[in-house]
Amino acid sequence: MRVRFYPDELRDEAIRLVVEHRLTTSEAASKLGLRTEVVRVWVHRSRYRKTPLNDIEQLRACVKRLAMERDAFAGIAADFLDKTI
Fold first, then answer.
1. pLDDT in tens, 24-37
2. Phi, psi of 42 (to 5 degrees)
3. Which of 13, 14, 27, 43 is buried deepest, with most CB atoms within 10 A?
4. Crossing angle of helices 25-32 and 36-48, rounded to 10°
């Protein structure tokens, strides 16, 4: 059997389809024209290793949390300004 090398972007897209879009590995594989086993291994590795995709997911969660805090503080500031004027 010959080893095939796939671009990192293709691997990341396959993992994203399974993790974020909740497709099965076989659905993601058929959508991208890959073997199911290849996608299953990529997803397994991404869940149990520190990969750039996990870093991106953590950053997205942090951005979401910071946006919520910003909005809360903006509301508090608006209430404070309304009371002082």
1. 999 999 999 999 99
2. -60, -45
3. 14
4. 120
**In 36-65, which positions are buried (b, 16+ CB within 10 angstroms) versus exposed (e)?**
eebbbebbeebeeeebebeeeeeeeeeeee
Residue 74 CA: distances (Å) to CA of 12, 52, 60, 65: 36, 32, 21, 14
Closest among 29, 20, 7 to 56, alpha carbons compared: 20
CA angle 26, 19, 68 (to 5 degrees): 160
pTM of the model: 0.56
**Number of neighbours of residue 25 by Cβ within 10 angstroms:** 22
The answer to whether 20 touches 9, Cβ cutoff 8 Å, is no
Tokens 């659905």 found at: 27
Pure H helices in the chain: 8-19, 25-32, 36-48, 52-84
| Encoded tokens for 32 | 């991208």
